[in-house]
Amino acid sequence: MTHRPTDEPFRAAGAHLADLAWPHPPDPARVDPAVLGALLRRHGWQRRGGAPGRYGRWTPPGPGESRTSLLVPENRAFPDCDDLLGEALLALARGGSPSARDILVGLAVPSDEVHWSRDVPEGPAGAAPWAAEEQLRGAARRMLLAAALATRARAGYHGARHRRQAAAALDSVLVGASTGGRALAAFVPVGAGRPLAVRLHQALYAAREAIDHQRATGCADAFDRAVEAGVSHELTRALVALVRGSEGARITVHWSPAAGVPGDRAAPDGPVEFSPGDLPVLREAGARYLREEPSVPVRVTGTVARMRRSGPDGPGAVRLRVLTGAEVADVRVILDEEAYRLAGHAHLVGLPVRVDGRLASRGGFRRVTDVSAVEPVAVDDAERDRLMKSFQEDLDVFKGARGGE
Questions:
Q1: DSSP result, 236-301
Q2: From the candidate CATH numbers 3.40.50.150, 2.170.130.10, 2.40.50.140, 3.10.290.10, the one assigned to the domain spanning 296-401
Q3: What is the dihedral of CA 62, 65, 70, 74, to 10 degrees?
Q4: Mind listing the pLDDT tens digit for each residue in 96-141?
Q5: What is the per-residue pLDDT across 3-50, written as a single tens digit (0 to 9) for each?
Q6: Distance (Å, rounded) from C-alpha 405 to C-alpha 394?
């Protein structure tokens, strides 16, 4: 059995923070001092004094940064709370450091943060190879997509199923600047993206436990149980991409201090670490998921997008744009001569067809096999007009139906 490769490129998740302008800092009246303090601590700022219970003096991370400091009240009971917050936020907005921008994002859009870090060999003057940054970003995107897929369904191999919806779920994710191919952060808005962050958190810990179990016992059954937590072929491939060529990698999920810790969190906090020694187990698990995910019975309704057969009669291949019945954009079906002719007639009069069969894992769940029934589906006049308009815009279907004449 062969499968369509799952490592094809797909669009980047969300917008990059570097593309976002901050003409004005957030309104101090809408900022919780405790949330600002938590974000400063998360991003490496140090509290270096201040009046306990009233305000703290914070300095940014890194050498030579101690000349900059922020006075941040601990709560709104402090008399000059808004004034101090306003000055601190203005200093962050004007500072331009990556951590300052990340903190402003966390204040403007309450977000769970996902941080990736890789130990990669250093080049001249501590620089990392250009490919290392591309590898980190690609692995991070694939990991977020795997988590988004797992929020839609639990499966060892997703293939093309739910991919459009999962990719759309990443549109609101903000991606920070990569630090030399060694570190990257993504900001997942709590409002729309918390299920994604929770699923990723649980899946990473489940993958770590399954790897440890297989390395200790030689038994891979823990990966079967891990599917329920969100582990899949797609996640194992993302982890392989993250770890390959490095000396180790870590992923940490930080919960939004504004929203708090999710109530359904089952995994502990802290980074989840993976090493090159895990790669054989991850590759084996990914191949096993790919091999063993079963086909599923479906009743697909779709419009004919393309028809092709080798001669004027006999069986032929039909591509359907899926309307209902399967979580993919389109499927390919091999029909016998009578069913092929029926599909062609339905297309010419602007009707979709309904096909009963099995959605096969081969090809990424893009093929319906063991077809048992094909029938046209009646639609109302408005829907028929829409389908006929689509038909006029897709004249190449005629060429396919007539053997390319």
A1: HHHHHHHHTTSS-EEEEEE--TTT-S-TT--SPSS-EEE-GGGHHHHHHHHHHHHHHPPPEEEEEE
A2: 2.40.50.140
A3: 30
A4: 677 888 888 888 889 999 999 999 877 665 566 678 888 999 999 9
A5: 444 444 334 455 554 444 444 678 888 889 999 999 999 888 988 877
A6: 16
